[in-house]
Amino acid sequence: MVHQYKLNxxxxxxxxxxxxxxxxxxxxxxxxxxxxxxPAEEITARLxxxxxxxxxxxxxxxxxxxxxxxxxxxxxxxxxxxSFKDEVIDYKSRRTEIKAxxxxxxxxxxxxxxxxFASQGRYKGDRALMSFEVGKRALDFLIxxxxxxxNLEVDFFGGEPLMNWDVVKKLxxxxxxxxxxxxxxxxxxxxxxxVLLDDEVIDFANREMHNVVLSxxxxxxxxxxxxxxxxxxxxxxxxxxxxxxxxxKRGDREYYIxxxxxxxxxxxxxxxxxxxxxxxxxxxxxxxxCAPSDPYALRKEDLPxxxxxxxxxxxxxxxxxxxxxxxxxxxxxxxxxxxxxxxxRVAGCGSGTEYLAVTPWGELYPCHQFVGDANYSMxxxxxxxxxxxxxxxxxxxxxYARPECRRCxxxxxxxxxxxxxxxxxxxxxRGIYELGCELFKKRMECAIMIKAAEAEME
Amino acid sequence: xxxxxxxxxxDLKNSLISGGCxxxxxxxxxxxxxxxxVANQKCESNNKK
Lengths: 458, 49
Description:
The complex is a heterodimer of chains A (458) and B (49). In chain A, strands 4, 5, 6, 7, 8, 9, 10, 11, 12, 13, 14 and 15 form a twelve-stranded mixed sheet that branches. In chain A, helix 1 (26-35) runs antiparallel to helix 2 (40-50) and helix 4 runs parallel beside helix 5. Chain A has 16 helices and 15 strands. In chain A, a hairpin with a 3-residue loop joins strand 14 (379-380) and strand 15 (384-385). Chain A is globular and about 75 Å long. With 458 residues, chain A is α/β, with parallel strands linked by helices. By secondary structure, chain B is largely without helices or strands. Chain B has one helix at residues 12-18, and one strand at residues 4-7. The model of chain B has no long low-confidence stretch (mean pLDDT 80).
């Protein structure tokens, strides 16, 4: 399968199953487009006619280009076949180990954001804080169920995890105390709205957290529209100086300023520019997750404008990189040479199998977005996974579970997407969240175009 | 090739042989939490091809 597109002056050809990326001129672009459907003589005749005003395109040139395409095909770098889907990877019977937990240390929040998928941190349930005992048991459960995996990930999530900060610190200390004897390496992430950030939190997080995710939606008026406290006051002025201090003290360690965009800021590129103006360089901006009936939900008719925003963002990244002041955007970070293997690319996100969410009471769910939905309860950290049928459903929920994905050029970049998004959009974890697919594909086209531009810079 | 520049990429077919160790980050455990993919994950295998 081949996907071709033109973007920002680059002609790009992706060979889906080999993972090859080719940057080509106009003639090669056309040759590749016609190659599998027409005989060489007809391609030559058609392109001689099309390029009759171009002195550089002769019959000999077209033949040379056809030979190059043939050679790439012979090397398995163009028009390669899907050799993964049936024979090699038996997904249903594969053994999976749990290697990541999303610890919901606080089902409560000090902000009251209308768009929160977690219903202001309560996940449609009671307010609660995780006790140290439950958290400790969750870490033991992770160690016990992680087999030979060395790297274990734990995300302190909520609600707002800083509302249960002492427990977070104790859990980090406990995990560290077990690393050596268990031959494990814990990587912690803290996701916070910033309200309770102070120097003590910043210093601890910069010492212990592999990654920190800081929630900021961009411009003050955009951020404050949703991210308000319970008195209705926006949080921008409170959190921005704290985030700036956090990031300044963090040095080279990983962080993301993470925004959410909605129908209210379809010009989200202006929010990204604002983040850059504030001095942040590691950025993420996510489409809102909400019911289609919500007034701020993204709609199909918003797509052309959103595509334009993603293109503007990609061009800005290239421009700033050329000027020596580059920045990162989470969804444009694509590592062509050291990216994931095909197992990872096919297996899906790991929800319900390698990755579970733990509520303050120790209940297990396939991921944070299923928490509170009784149909998706998987067990608890005391008794383990007591709903293996559900786990097997998630195990089988990979890129080849959906006919649409099998036909999609982005299948090995996306891996079938987010099961929760599919479920919320269609009622089925194997459903297709079409709007999400369109946005994802656009982001991949932009990310790969940036790679083409970078190759030129080298 | 005069008209085709091929960027360096990981050979996905070779990764069938060397891959599958599972040490890489879980897709959603980073910045997004709402719209994951796998393209931006890094391989953490010591035996990568």
